[in-house]
What does this fold into?
Amino acid sequence: MDVFEAINNRRSIRQQKSDAVDEKTVEKILEAARWAPSWANTQCSRFIVVRDSNLKEQAAATMFRRPGSTEMGPTAQAIMDAPVLIVVCAEMKKSGIRPDGSSATDKGDWYMFDTALATQNLVLAAHALGLGTVIIGAFDAPKVAEILGVPSGYSVVTMTPLGVPAQEGRTPSRKELAELVSYDKFGS
It folds into this structure.
């Protein structure tokens, strides 16, 4: 699959079949994530591949719910239904940090940027291989870190269930390029 086709056609998939995803395929997807650019090649991203149904259920239980709701949403259900959950973590105070420990920019620790790049590679590679993913951010990350034994100095950033799509993703509307791009100065 062409990279532009993968970018244009990848969708968030919240319903996956329970069909197994073999280790070689998961490794190929993680290899794509590994090759994402990072600040000064610090490679702060780390990945936990979760196949254990009990651990996936515990991770799903950390999802934020709508106020007043006790129902588990479709994304939490996707975590439990998908054969694989990939949890993306970051080594803290490594990316965008000077040798003296201070931030190199006004953005602070760049771990969110670096893990986002790795996650984008991961979901595009999964899509190119015919698998579905959804990038999850609305969950109790410290609780997931506790469940999965993530050590101090690392942070859980995002999770994505990985599996064979049970249905096609919905194509969202996109703003026109003219609404997003300025030339020479903002707003021009």
User: Anything to note?
Assistant: DSSP finds seven helices and four strands in the chain. The chain has a mean pLDDT of 93. The two ends are 36 Å apart (CA to CA).
